[in-house]
């Protein structure tokens, strides 16, 4: 039958239930136990003839005359219901006959083993809590090593992302990914709190965006009649708080960047940024390494993961390497002493896309991205980034070309970014004004000049370290998922052509 015919039949059942004087969507509901609780200590519960009340979704139903069976499921487990007209009475059993897989019900009764040996609830009453109108997708099962395993709930993987509620309903293992994500985020907060950081909240709607190289989303405030931007980073507001006297702050929240989508990018994503007065780049390396190892060992329970086709070990001391040295190792170029002209010629020879206004530092970064980054599999802190592409980081002592900055690379992708933060207001102004010139040349991802932030710096900001960790990519690694859509509940999708 066409789907609308199934819906029509369900609506007819709904009308019959209402005609019986029963509210199919009652206000009140109750339960005495989660299903997982009553699966413990089965023999003693049966011996004690304990009466329990369970609530959940019917995921299967079958009837044989005046006897019926159903599988009831909540978020903890599943149990069989045994329903008979003799136990329920004619009216209540008539209600059960009008139920379908997908309905939410409340069942009260005692526990027993059926003749087939299945632990079940012998129902004394059934209460309908919510009538299902649209049939659930068919769930296929097969036996693997003596166990029933669900599979192929969705032939089209995109449907899982567009209708996540069905994905979670039909794929309990996918629910566990998001439960683990929640534990990872909670453990991150506890880790930061235990080290004297305080969690803060900064604006999502900003009159001026900054703190990263990215294009923003633009919206409009009607009352103020002004354009506002969804934040691309929280950095500049957290630094204002350090100026204001806080010494350790962090924020976990959404950022928004108007950019492409792929396996590791979603335009709306979660970041954790933190700033610590009187720290520096080395302090940030220790913080990031300690946090991620804690999450792996103490939350997930292991230190070796398979990610993007690579086996990654998080338990050992992580490598710390210089970008110029890594480029030299991969290409033979001595980027610190080679001329800008020779580096430009190298980029053109290898058909690298060089943006207008690029100087030597940008060329070094382009060569690194092409020949080095994707080959770094084990956790590596790549240090000594060019100052030209690090406008918010302090210059590296003794080398004006480089900045005191690192990116954490795992399996060829970036997981964290950190600086010894620039606190010289005059130097910061020069850096941002240089970025503004790049914008004039067509680089729409260059930083903007934020006068309020520069004014805050002029009041004085202590030396400090700052870092940002991509929570989504970290969850991908720790749950061994290769697509960001697998660990975001509602990822951004292209419009459905259908």
Secondary structure layout:
Blueprint: H1 3-19, H2 35-38, H3 42-47, E1 51-64, E2 67-73, E3 78-84, H4 85-88, H5 90-97, E4 104-113, E5 119-130, E6 140-144, E7 147-151, H6 157-162, H7 164-170, H8 172-194, E8 198-199, E9 205-206, E10 218-221, E11 226-230, H9 235-243, E12 248-256, E13 268-277, H10 281-300, E14 304-307, E15 310-313, E16 319-322, H11 323-331, H12 340-349, H13 360-371, E17 380-386, E18 395-396, E19 399-410, E20 413-420, H14 425-440, H15 451-458, E21 464-470, H16 471-479
Parallel strand pairs: 3-5, 8-12, 16-17
Antiparallel strand pairs: 1-2, 1-4, 2-3, 4-5, 6-7, 9-11, 10-11, 12-13, 13-21, 14-15, 17-19, 18-19, 19-20, 20-21
Based on Cα principal axes, name the global outline. Answer: elongated
How many separate structural domains? 3
Q: What structural class is derived from the secondary structure elements?
A: alpha+beta
What profile does the largest beta sheet have?
A: 9 strands, mixed
Q: Low-confidence parts, pLDDT < 50 over ≥5 residues? A: none
CATH superfamily of the largest domain: Bira Bifunctional Protein, Domain 2
* Topology-level CATH name of the largest domain: BirA Bifunctional Protein, domain 2
Distance between the termini: 21 Å
Query: How much helicity do the residues have?
Result: 25-40%
- Total number of beta strands: 21
Task: Kindly report the average pLDDT value.
Answer: 94
* Total number of helices: 16
CATH top level of the largest domain is Alpha Beta
The CATH architecture classification of the largest domain is 2-Layer Sandwich
- Whole-number radius of gyration? 29 Å
Binned strand content:
25-35%
